[in-house]
Amino acid sequence: MPRVKGGPQTRRRRNRRLKLAKGQYGGKSKLFRTATESVDKGQAYAYAGRKHRKRDFRRLWITRISAAVKAHGLSYSKFMNALKNANVLLNRKMLSEMAIHDEAGFKSLTDMAKTNLGKAAA
């Protein structure tokens, strides 16, 4: 049985990893071991960043809704509770967009929320 050497596969694997490290500073883009560490760390940050982005957007939407609702004399939590009691099924992203672009529609929602403020959920 002849001995099999994995030269082409090894070179391909290393070049693939070095290609991912392109743009890194110094040895992180040239040396295989440091490039591997750098790419692994970068991919971990990218994965976590995709999760953080969702959190950040939700925080932004809540802040926008809160600011718009305060202008109508309500707090964010009371507004959201009243909408839930009124069976209004709009998510925070859409409520935030309405607060920015459709003031009349948002005002009608705040009026609806004021009428449903003390009622319990059905």
Helix-strand layout with pairing:
Blueprint: H1 7-20, H2 32-70, H3 76-85, H4 92-101, H5 103-115
CATH fold name, please? c-terminal domain of poly(a) binding protein
> Uncertain runs with pLDDT below 50, 5 residues or more?
none
Structural class: mainly alpha
Helix content range: over 70%
The rounded distance between the terminal residues' Cα atoms is 77 Å
Text of the CATH class = Mainly Alpha
Strand content: under 5%
Task: Please describe the biggest sheet, giving its number of strands, its sense, and whether it closes into a barrel.
Answer: none
Work out the radius of gyration.
Answer: 26 Å
Average pLDDT, all residues: 92
CATH architecture: Orthogonal Bundle
H/E series, N to C? HHHHH
Query: How many strands in all?
Result: 0
**Overall structural domain count:** 1
Describe the protein's architecture and organization.
With 122 residues, the chain is mainly alpha-helical. It has one domain: c-terminal domain of poly(a) binding protein (Orthogonal Bundle). It is built from five helices and no strands. Helix 2 packs across helix 4. The longest helix has 39 residues. It is rod-shaped and about 85 Å long.
Can you tag this structure with a few keywords?
single chain; 122 residues; mainly alpha; c-terminal domain of poly(a) binding protein; Ribosomal_protein_bL20_C; ribosomal protein; ribonucleoprotein; Ribosomal_bL20
